[in-house]
UniProtKB/TrEMBL annotation:
Belongs to the 6-phosphogluconate dehydrogenase family. Keywords: Gluconate utilization, NADP, Oxidoreductase, Pentose shunt. The keyword Repeat does not apply. This is 6-phosphogluconate dehydrogenase, decarboxylating. It comes from Gaoshiqia sediminis. NADP(+) binds at residues 11-16, 34-36, 76-78, 104. Catalyzes the oxidative decarboxylation of 6-phosphogluconate to ribulose 5-phosphate and CO(2), with concomitant reduction of NADP to NADPH. Its EC number is 1.1.1.44. Substrate binds at residues 104, 130-132, 188-189, 193, 262, 289, 447, 453. One of its GO terms (molecular function) is NADP binding.
Length: 484
């Protein structure tokens, strides 16, 4: 074993343990520390026995065991614990040493921490790590951002442990300055919320409108995973629907229908509102989880409020094919909206994001990994200045081809009282995006009527604002015009 470790890690929970085992398996020596020091001894004598690990019982021991420039990665709970460990580390580090936050931190915290750590003469990386327990052990997707000068020192380690795509390219590349890494991870998680919700809506239609059994749905998802929808989430949905409880019945039907969330989807929606980006599908996915959590209220409502009873008389095979098209179309919209958000954030925070590179990082290791992402990378490789994914010829053709089936699914679901908020909001975005004229002219007239907020005219140059005294009783004074 080397006398000094290549990297140190704080936090031996599930993700931390698996990530350091991954690092060690790639030839790196890793120093490990945990606030509850018994975990260190348990790990060194357990899963880490006989391997290239150095156990540390204090921050001082951890730092002293590292090669220079020292690299200390934290995989601890987001929020105050990250700041606390940064304060504990700083006195023991030297200029050029690197603090890495690999947790699910909110990107504004990473912006703040980068500035703070750099003010102490040190370097900071905030990296998204996606793929869960299995990804951490076998190869996650990693999205690092922060101090650009830190990247060369950690690149070899990060890219060695990251997942690889078919040609061997690692699902890890430098994302951008300060909070860019955690922002991209946040958008990844938002897209994950959207993908999961549209899959759940397809399941709902199959189960309640088509009256399909779990085994029948299992076969559909198995087929879909060999076609356009080939992805990790379709794959695990296939497996879940085929899994039987001890009594031989589908386990999925015994699980309480209240969804949990850790906040990253909400963060994505709030960021979209702050930046003025229509992230409708992901927003509806967050709200769908919130509605599911109101279980007792829904049970109460179900006893007193009635609606249509699902009854399907059409061709079952056709609606299943339509569902595939609806999922594919909505998935394109979700990524178009997510990329739109990243583009606006890059302008706002002055990040230089590589959009094709981000698609590559998501091609393997992470929860939203799918064959679909290769097409996104091609789109941005072909046109790095692509303003919206829907304007790429490939995606324009694909989304147009899905719309007939997609519309039939939404119509059938709504007619039969089955909620499909994400599928319908995505379709409405598609129709709004392709509309040369929307009814916001009336909205502007309303705003000017009640608040003198002014409006622009189609027969005058952009940037000229007008106010009308709609009632004859108002004055000519207009409110200040501003953009959200």
């Amino acid at each position: 074993m080397k006398k000094l470790a290549d990297i140190g890690l704080i936090g031996l929970a599930v993700m931390g343990e698996n990530l350091v085992l991954n690092m060690e398996s790639k030839g790196f020596t890793v120093a490990v520390y945990n606030r509850t020091v018994e975990k260190v001894d348990n790990f060194i004598n357990g899963r880490g026995a006989g391997k290239n690990f150095i156990g540390a019982h204090s921050i001082e021991e951890l730092v002293a065991s590292l090669e220079k420039p020292r690299k200390v990665m934290m995989l601890v709970k987001a929020g105050k614990p990250v700041d606390d460990f940064i304060e504990l580390l700083i006195p023991h580090l030297e200029p050029g040493d690197i603090i890495i936050d690999g947790g699910n931190s909110h990107f504004p915290d990473s912006i703040r921490r980068t500035q703070y750590v750099e003010s102490k003469g040190l370097l900071f990386i905030g990296t998204g790590v996606s793929g869960g327990e299995e990804g951490a052990l076998k190869g996650p997707s990693m999205m690092p951002g922060g101090s650009p000068a830190a990247w060369p020192a950690v690149k070899e380690i990060f890219q060695a442990v990251a997942a690889k795509v078919e040609d061997g390219s690692p699902c890890c590349e430098w994302v951008g300055e300060d909070g860019a890494g955690h922002f991209v991870k946040m958008v990844h998680n938002g897209i994950e919320y959207g993908d999961m919700q549209i899959i759940n809506e397809a399941y709902h239609v199959m189960k309640d409108l088509l009256c399909m059994s779990a085994d029948e749905m299992h076969e559909v998802f198995k087929k879909w995973n060999t076609e356009e929808l080939d992805s990790y989430l379709i794959e695990i949905t296939r497996d879940i629907l085929g899994y039987k409880d001890e009594d031989g019945e589908p386990l999925v039907e015994k699980i309480l229908d209240t969804a949990g969330q850790k906040g990253t989807g909400k963060w994505t929606g709030v960021s979209a509102l702050d930046l003025g980006i229509p992230l409708t599908l992901i927003g509806e996915s967050v709200f769908a989880r919130c509605l599911s959590a109101q279980k007792d209220l829904r049970v109460q409502a179900s006893k007193v409020i009635s609606g249509p009873k699902p009854s399907f008389t059409g061709e079952k095979a056709q609606l299943i094919e339509d569902l595939k098209m609806a999922l594919y179309g909505a998935k394109i919209i979700s990524y178009a909206q997510g990329y739109n958000l990243m583009m606006e954030a890059a302008k706002e925070y002055k990040w230089n994001l590589n959009y094709g590179g981000i698609a590559l990082m998501w091609r393997g290791g992470c929860i939203i990994r799918s064959a679909f992402l290769g097409d996104i990378k091609k789109a941005f490789d072909k046109n790095p200045e692509l303003p919206n994914l829907l304007l790429d010829p490939f995606f324009k053709e694909k989304v147009e081809a899905t719309q007939a089936g997609w519309r039939r699914v939404c119509a059938a679901a709504l007619t039969n009282g089955i909620p499909v908020p994400a599928l319908t909001s995505a379709l409405c975005y598609f129709d709004g995006f392709r509309s040369e004229r929307l009814p916001a002219n009336l909205l502007q007239a309303q705003r000017d009527y009640f608040g003198a907020h002014t409006y622009e005219r189609i027969d005058k140059p952009r940037g000229q604002f007008f106010h009308t005294n709609w009632t004859g009783r108002g004055g000519d004074t207009a409110s200040t015009t501003y953009e959200v």
